[in-house]
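ok so I'm stuck.
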Amino acid sequence: MLLQLTRRKHATGTTRPARSWHAGVVTADSSRWLTVPDLVELLGVSPGRIHRLLEDHSLLAVRRDQVLMVPEEFLRDGEPLHELRGTLILLADNGFSDDEAMEWMLSPDDMLGTSPIQALRQGRKAEVRRVAQAMAF
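replied:
not stuck anymore, here's the structure
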C-alpha cells in the first residue's frame, strides 16, 4: 500500500505539502493484521460493535486486499489500546486520512525513536501526541 502524499487540500481550504515523516510503504510484515471476524472473536463483541469502535476512533482500520483490517498492536489485554483513541482523533482533526494515520502510527519516527504505536504501548502518550500535533503546522 503506497500512499501518494502530495500537496492536497486541507479541510480549511488551504493546500499543504506532503508529510515530512513519510517513510514509504507499510508492509504486511510490519504487523499481524486482524479482520473484523478476527476482532469479533478476540474481543467477544458483535461486528456492529467493531464498526462503532472504528467510527469513534477507538480503533483504526484500513483496507488490505479489499478487506478491512486492524493491526494487532492496536489491542492490549483483549481490548483496544486506551491511549489510541485520543491520538487517532488528533490525527483526524489535523486532516490525516485513515491510510495516512495508519502509516504514521506504524512507521518509525525519528522524534520518538520508534513507531508511534510502540511509543503508545510504552506509555509515552503525551510525547506521541506532541509529535502528532507538531505535524499539523
